[in-house]
Amino acid sequence: MLKKFRGMFSNDLSIDLGTANTLIYVKGQGIVLNEPSVVAIRQDRAGSPKSVAAVGHDAKQMLGRTPGNIAAIRPMKDGVIADFFVTEKMLQHFIKQVHSNSFMRPSPRVLVCVPVGATQVERRAIRESAQGAGAREVFLIEEPMAAAIGAGLPVSEATGSMVVDIGGGTTEVAVISLNGVVYSSSVRIGGDRFDEAIINYVRRNYGSLIGEATAERIKHEIGSAYPGDEVREIEVRGRNLAEGVPRGFTLNSNEILEALQEPLTGIVSAVMVALEQCPAGTGFRHLRARHGAHRWWRTAA
């Protein structure tokens, strides 16, 4: 009864609980939260209870440079929960953050996206984590279906719509028709692999070491899946491995395209397999690819 009463002062939320980032959508307001799925956990002495030191952007800044008693944790792996306690605390923080003007503890109805390949145990963990974070009701929707609906694709028609959802840890390829997922596959290639490929390219070709944050910035600013008309450049700094000191250098978009060829080829291969394996008679009219905030549309005849 108390949860129902508090629910009167809470917004219904749609949550994309990703390996790299968590997004929250409120009807009529759009995306109201987009934060890294990272939590900094403090444990002051052996046997003492864990406490949350920071969540989201603040916690991500601590990755790789925390004191001994604080650990920066990514509680999601491949789109499912890897650390139940930390995921619950993260959701609790984000739900409270989007209800900052509420005078009561929020108790919203929540729709959470889950990978198509998530097991029943993994789905139950997501549901229970959201409930533990304060949700009064939890509904699950498969990620490709949510992406297709959000893109305005005709999911109820007999024609096939393909969705390529590139997340932080995995890429999901799905074919949707008649309100159902008729084919799906998942490959362990995502934004994190793109970052690793850029780091390896810089080490190999420039003899310098850059961090994850720098690689991510390079990816967002000049990364591309295909050659563009304009060659873009970015100035970065990294630790020269021979000298052991920071050095600046310039990268261009053609170099990053080369660096990303291996992970991109893996995604293209998954799409080709989907085209070969999808049920006969599924006439494709739409293909959508999505990677974080970057979206590319393709329409096939």
TrEMBL record:
<keyword id="KW-0963">Cytoplasm</keyword>
<dbReference type="GO" id="GO:0000902">
    <property type="term" value="P:cell morphogenesis"/>
</dbReference>
<feature type="binding site">
    <location>
        <begin position="19"/>
        <end position="21"/>
    </location>
    <ligand>
        <name>ATP</name>
    </ligand>
</feature>
<dbReference type="InterPro" id="IPR043129">
    <property type="entry name" value="ATPase_NBD"/>
</dbReference>
<keyword id="KW-0067">ATP-binding</keyword>
<dbReference type="Pfam" id="PF06723">
    <property type="entry name" value="MreB_Mbl"/>
</dbReference>
<dbReference type="GO" id="GO:0008360">
    <property type="term" value="P:regulation of cell shape"/>
</dbReference>
<dbReference type="GO" id="GO:0005524">
    <property type="term" value="F:ATP binding"/>
</dbReference>
<keyword id="KW-0547">Nucleotide-binding</keyword>
<dbReference type="InterPro" id="IPR004753">
    <property type="entry name" value="MreB"/>
</dbReference>
<protein>
    <recommendedName>
        <fullName>Cell shape-determining protein MreB</fullName>
    </recommendedName>
</protein>
<comment type="subunit">
    <text>Forms polymers.</text>
</comment>
<feature type="binding site">
    <location>
        <begin position="168"/>
        <end position="170"/>
    </location>
    <ligand>
        <name>ATP</name>
    </ligand>
</feature>
<feature type="binding site">
    <location>
        <begin position="216"/>
        <end position="219"/>
    </location>
    <ligand>
        <name>ATP</name>
    </ligand>
</feature>
<dbReference type="InterPro" id="IPR056546">
    <property type="entry name" value="MreB_MamK-like"/>
</dbReference>
<keyword id="KW-0133">Cell shape</keyword>
<dbReference type="GO" id="GO:0005737">
    <property type="term" value="C:cytoplasm"/>
</dbReference>
<comment type="similarity">
    <text>Belongs to the FtsA/MreB family.</text>
</comment>
<comment type="function">
    <text>Forms membrane-associated dynamic filaments that are essential for cell shape determination. Acts by regulating cell wall synthesis and cell elongation, and thus cell shape. A feedback loop between cell geometry and MreB localization may maintain elongated cell shape by targeting cell wall growth to regions of negative cell wall curvature.</text>
</comment>
